[in-house]
User: Which sequence fits this backbone?
């Protein structure tokens, strides 16, 4: 098939709800409305609403950082300074930098 056309009604990967509607749905669930009713009323997948209510899947996506932001900035500044001084660097020297 050369040109793919999505079937009508098939599930898309993009979210079709706003952060505001998600907040409104979460407030209604906190006041006592069921998750299924709130998800249908605001057009949010019930799994997404369930995960938000029960605080599941809250970690950030991807591998954890090895360096803190401050340490990374120190390394970047040191490499830039050595570049300004025209000092050649290799991988071994970068491992020793602070």
Assistant:
């Amino acid at each position: 098939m050369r040109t793919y056309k999505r079937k009508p009604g098939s599930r898309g990967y993009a979210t079709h709800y706003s952060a505001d509607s998600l907040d409104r749905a979460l407030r209604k669930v906190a006041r006592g409305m069921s998750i299924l009713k709130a998800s249908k009323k605001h057009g949010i997948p019930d799994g997404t609403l369930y995960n938000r209510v029960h605080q599941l899947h809250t970690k950030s996506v991807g591998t954890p950082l090895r360096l803190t932001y401050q340490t990374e900035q120190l390394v970047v500044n040191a490499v830039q300074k050595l570049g300004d001084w025209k000092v050649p660097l290799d991988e071994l020297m970068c491992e020793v930098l602070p």
User: Anything to note?
Assistant: The helical segments are 19-30, 35-42, 46-53, 69-84, 91-96.
